[in-house]
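Action item from last meeting closed. Structure (411 res):
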């Protein structure tokens, strides 16, 4: 029988998060009187997106060296490739979609394997891009898109980056929040992030959700505009994670802790000044990483937004890699939210034990050790609340009820 949130917190007790860490794990991580990484070189996959920055900078600025490891960033072509290479051991870990890790854990549409999330890599920083062709037909936002679809029947196509991933859940939620059923009123397709702009250019889709810099690239190329950012949908939402197999953590717990600590340090460095953000944009713009001009990357890295149709603003909720330290914490409620959306859209055919799965996947034990090593504060509660764009509150208390309350969903 699973614990509900209240019982779980009661069990955690006055000792806080420390008591959530099994004693065997705590002791095992320091086995043989040494905390030295078992594996000195770790290959971490990434997709060409701005939010791979903390993984890249951990290697480039040698934050990894302090913890006795060498991070080898490995550029990958698609999220499906990242998934397969994680599962078969070609990658030790990856900059990876939150929902992809849970999809593999639950065996949704692909291989099933026990997985681990070591940390959250960033909050915010994705967007919903609509085509200039829609703009020419009077669409500027979600409500006007709904009016067009109701008024002019036809095939409207929207792209996301992976079936169980964050961008799929964001665009489904965004469409549904405006009264558009993502599977009945429109068509949805999967396109790898770096290919989004090219596909919109040739008319393969009317809109997409992806990470930066590809939304701003569409604006610079005058083929799309930003209808909303994902932080408009959910302020400080979880996004990419440092993910790996549970097998990797079991075999190399010290290495898992070391790479988590190095990437926490890199995220802190990025967020410590606008100058460091500019330096980061310059580094990741290289063809070895994102392969996109610095000018396209840096604007939204600094929170300077242009929606492409006349609106300019400074967004304090831009992409964050550390902020107060809580950005990197793998909140249990975040993992539970993605499962609730997998259930909402019929990817999960029945309700799982949401809390039990999240406790298994989100490795707070490893994170806590890395936080201690880096002087990163821990939140008092492994659950957090959020009110999303449609006014619906998520607090992690009853994921089953939450998943079933949406008017627009797959029965």
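Sequence:
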């Amino acid at each position: 029988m699973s614990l509900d949130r209240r019982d779980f917190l009661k069990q955690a007790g006055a000792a806080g998060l420390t008591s959530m860490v099994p004693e065997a794990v705590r002791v095992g991580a320091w086995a043989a009187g040494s905390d030295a990484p078992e594996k000195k070189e770790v290959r971490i996959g990434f997709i060409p997106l701005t939010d791979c920055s903390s993984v890249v900078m951990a290697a480039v600025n040698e934050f990894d060296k302090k913890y006795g490891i060498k991070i080898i960033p490995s550029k990958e072509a698609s999220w499906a490739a990242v998934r397969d290479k994680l599962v078969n051991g070609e990658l030790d870990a990856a900059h990876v979609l939150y929902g992809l890790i849970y999809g593999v854990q639950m065996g949704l549409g692909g291989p099933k394997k026990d997985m681990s999330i070591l940390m959250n890599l960033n909050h915010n920083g994705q967007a919903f891009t609509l085509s200039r062709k829609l703009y020419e037909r009077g669409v500027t936002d979600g409500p006007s898109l709904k009016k067009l679809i109701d008024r002019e029947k036809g095939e409207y196509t929207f792209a996301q980056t992976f079936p169980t991933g964050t961008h799929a859940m964001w665009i489904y939620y965004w469409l549904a929040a405006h009264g558009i059923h993502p599977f009945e009123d429109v068509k949805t397709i999967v396109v790898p992030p770096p290919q989004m702009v090219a596909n919109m250019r040739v008319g393969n889709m009317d809109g997409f959700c992806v990470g930066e810099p590809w939304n701003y690239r569409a604006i610079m190329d005058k083929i799309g505009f930003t209808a909303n950012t994902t932080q408009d949908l959910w302020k400080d939402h979880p996004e990419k994670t440092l993910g790996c197999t549970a097998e990797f953590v079991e075999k190399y717990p010290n290495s898992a802790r070391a790479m988590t600590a190095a990437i926490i340090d890199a995220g802190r460095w990025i967020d410590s000044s606008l100058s460091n953000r500019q330096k980061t944009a310059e580094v990741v713009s290289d063809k070895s990483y994102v392969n996109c001009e610095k000018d396209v990357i840096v604007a939204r890295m600094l929170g300077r937004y242009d929606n492409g149709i006349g609106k300019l603003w400074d967004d304090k909720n831009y992409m964050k890699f550390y902020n107060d330290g809580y950005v990197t914490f793998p909140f249990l409620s975040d993992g539970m939210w993605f499962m609730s959306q997998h259930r909402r859209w019929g990817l999960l055919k029945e309700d799982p034990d949401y809390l039990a799965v999240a406790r298994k996947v989100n490795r707070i034990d490893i994170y806590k050790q890395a936080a201690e090593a880096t002087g990163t504060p821990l939140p008092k509660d492994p659950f957090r609340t959020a009110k999303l764009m449609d006014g619906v509150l998520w607090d992690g208390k009853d994921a089953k009820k939450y998943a079933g309350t949406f008017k627009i969903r797959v029965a």
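Note appended to the action item: The CA atoms of residues 279 and 373 lie 25 Å apart.
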